[in-house]
Amino acid sequence: MAAALGSRAARRMRHLLSALKPGIQIPRAGPAAAFGSSVTSAKAAVNGVHLHYLRTGGGEHAVLLLPGMLGSGETDFGPQIENLNKKLFTVVAWDPRGYGHSRPPDRDFPVDFFERDAKDAIDLMKTLKFKKVSLLGWSDGGITALIAAARYPSYVSKMVIWGANAYVTEQDTEIYQGIRDVSKWSEKTRKPLEALYGFDYFARTCEKWVDGIEQFKHLPDGSICRDLLPLVQCPTLIVHGEKDPLVPRFHADFLHRHVRGSRLKHIHLREEPVAQNHRRAGSARWPRAHWRA
Question: Any idea where the AB hydrolase-1 domain is (predicted)?
C-alpha cells in the first residue's frame, strides 16, 4: 500500500480494535521497541497443505489477519503488520491455500471453499499454539472469519470484518462478471498481484473465483453462511465502505441484523479518479490500491 494509505489504515485498525474492547484504548504509534519491524515468514503443515504466514509481535492478544480474494498477508495487510503494537498483539497474517505463498496446491473453489478456509485458519492458529484468537477479515477473509467464529465460538475472542457478505444475489453476480477479465483492472490494483502470481495464474484464478462465488447463487437464498450468523457469539464490529462498488450496503446491514450484538460502522471513503474509471474492474476489493480515508 502507499505510505499515506498505510498510516491511515494503521490508525483505523487501532481504532477498530479498540472498539471491540470497551474501556481499553489501543496505544498510538510509540517507541520503536513497541513497533519493531521484525517479521517472521514461515510455513506450517495444516490439513495436508503447507500454509504460509507472517508473524510479528509478542503480545498476549493474538490477532489473525485474513486477506481477500487473491490476496495474501503481505499484499493486503502491510500497514497492520508494520504498525500494530507489538507489545499488545501477536499478529499473524496468513495466505489461504492456493493464494500468496501457500502454493502448491493451486487455488480451487469447491462449494465448501469458505468452510475449508475457516478450518485451515483456525487449525493454523492452533498449530502455532495460540489458545484463543481475534479475527480481522477483509472481503473473502471477512466471510471466512464469520464462518470461523460460528464454527469455533470458544476459540474466537473478537472479530472485525469489512467488505463481507453472507449470500449472493443476481446483482452481485453481475458485479463479479465485471471483474472476471483482469486485463481490464486498473494498473495499480493489477500490478501487485501480477508480481505475486504471474499474469497467467492471476488471470486464471480470478476467473475460477468468479465461477466459485457464483455457485452460491444457486443455493437456497444464495447462502454462503447466512444460516451460521446467529451462531456467532464474539463481540463483532462490521465495517462498510459507503462507496464500495463490489459489496453493496445491504450486505453489511444484513450482517448487522443477524450477528447478535454486533456493531456496524459505515465509513465514507474518498474515491480516486483511477477507481472511478475502473468501477467494475476490481478497483475497490483491496484496501491497498484505490481507497483512502
Answer: 62-192
